[in-house]
Design a protein that fits this description.
The protein has about 150 residues and is mainly alpha-helical. It is about 60% helix and about 0% strand. The protein has a single domain, classed as NusB-like (N-utilizing Substance Protein B Homolog, Chain A), CATH 1.10.940.10. The N and C termini lie far apart (about 35 Å).
Amino acid sequence: MPKSRTLREQVLQLLCQYDAGNEDVAHITEHNFDEDTGTTNEPEAKAKKLAKKIWDEHAEGDAHIAPFTPEWPLHRQPLVDRNILRLARYEIVSGMTPPAVAINEAVEIARVYSTEKSASFVNGVLDAIFHDKTPPTPVVEATDGKA
């Protein structure tokens, strides 16, 4: 469970790098944070593990977020905003963080790292997700029909 702003900021950094798509996820995960010392400390390992888990499930998360942002689909949102939403939504839905804490942290991070209007946008979307009683719809991967 994220216990600090620093951990959330590290996870956000990784999610943004994954989302930018300039390198593969494994390479980013392996080479982030530890280039100076050649080692990874425990908080960084936690950040990497959480970011990878959120990214692996980002299609499901995006499908859950999309109905709450019809005027601003994910592809139109600033990269930082959509990854703040992914992180906080995961914290809320997984139960790993009390919703009020996850929302507050997301809003504060948006104030620091994103646009002037991002904090209120993030707050509104996450509040709607928190109060929505409809469970997220799982994303079904397309198959080629072979078993």
